[in-house]
Write a structure and sequence with these properties.
The structure is a single chain. The chain is mostly helical. It has one domain: Rhodopsin 7-helix transmembrane proteins (Rhopdopsin 7-helix transmembrane proteins, Up-down Bundle), CATH 1.20.1070. The protein contains 7 helices and 3 strands. The chain has a 3-stranded antiparallel beta sheet. It binds retinal (RET). The site of retinal (RET) has 18 residues, from helix 3, helix 4, helix 5, helix 6 and helix 7.
């Protein structure tokens, strides 16, 4: 972060409050997912364990992010000036390094596809996710309008597009027969995934697109935080919904088990 950065009170508070909101959302989601674990069949509990881990990891990181944001600025005469301590963007990337593979795993696991399909999807998605994040970080900490930022951003986009291809094209083909009601949720899940994951590269580009440094910084933090709240707790809720429906189907509690056209 630039040393001379100055934020208005409202800008500083907007970001602070959003971080605080994320802490609350992750913490509440963790409790909910843990409680829901006993409400689904044994074979679906792994997906709920994974989504609980995701929000627990994010809860911790948002705590650190919130603290780092407070330490990065000092207040005087209505203005927050960067202290030079620097806001640590690394927490986000460490968080993603752990949570993005877990999110992909929970999605693939809850679908209960053939074992070989599951294994192949998991490996490829997880390796691509790690590549995307590792390649994005050097660009994230590079100067706003530098060539490095663009080059790393483009490199990181390659595995990102591969993940989208696997999820939308390959996964779609291998879905086969899913329980009634699942097709609709899966459709929603895909759009949520596209819409929320799409926020990240856009937030990444903001410092290059917005001239005002303070506005760009605030917009980027808002983008990443909203993305995280949608991609972790909300996504997790949909995974829970899938696990609940599958449990009902396994117990023969579903009225009409029509093959889904996913
Ligand atoms: C980066 C760098 C620029 C290019 C691209 C990126 C994509 C990041 C994504 C992150 C997803 C994070 C999630 C976290 C949820 O918990 C790294 C910003 C494409 C897609 C889903």
């Amino acid at each position: 972060m630039h040393l001379a950065l100055e934020l208005s009170e409202n800008q500083f508070n907007l970001v602070s409050n959003l971080f605080s909101f994320a802490i609350a959302a992750m913490g509440a989601a963790f409790i909910f997912f843990i409680l829901m674990r006993s409400q689904v069949g044994k074979k679906h509990q792994m997906a709920l364990t994974l989504t609980s881990l995701v929000v627990a990891i994010a809860f911790y990181h948002y705590w650190r992010i919130f603290e780092s944001w407070g330490d990065a600025f000092t207040y005087a005469n209505g203005v927050y000036t960067a202290t030079g301590a620097g806001f640590n963007e690394g927490y986000r990337y460490v968080d993603w390094l752990l949570t993005v593979p877990l999110l992909l795993a929970e999605l693939v696991i809850v679908l209960k596809l053939a074992k070989s399909t599951t294994r192949s999807l998991l490996w490829r998605l997880i390796i691509a996710a790690i590549a995307m994040i590792v390649l994005g970080y050097p660009g994230e900490i590079a100067a706003a309008d530098s060539t490095a930022r663009t080059v790393w951003g483009v490199l990181s986009t390659i595995p990102f597009l591969y993940i989208l291809y696997v999820l939308f094209v390959e996964l779609g083909k291998s879905l086969g027969r899913q329980e009634a009601g699942i097709a609709k949720i899966l459709d929603g899940l895909r759009y949520i995934l596209l819409a929320t994951w799409g926020i990240y590269p856009i937030a990444y580009m903001l410092p290059s697109l917005i001239d005002n440094e303070a506005t760009a910084e605030v917009a980027r933090q808002v983008g990443y935080s909203l993305g995280d709240v949608l991609a972790k707790p909300l996504f997790g809720l949909l995974v829970v919904a899938i696990a609940v429906i599958k449990t009902k189907a396994d117990n023969g509690e579903l009225e009409e088990a029509e093959p889904a056209s996913a």
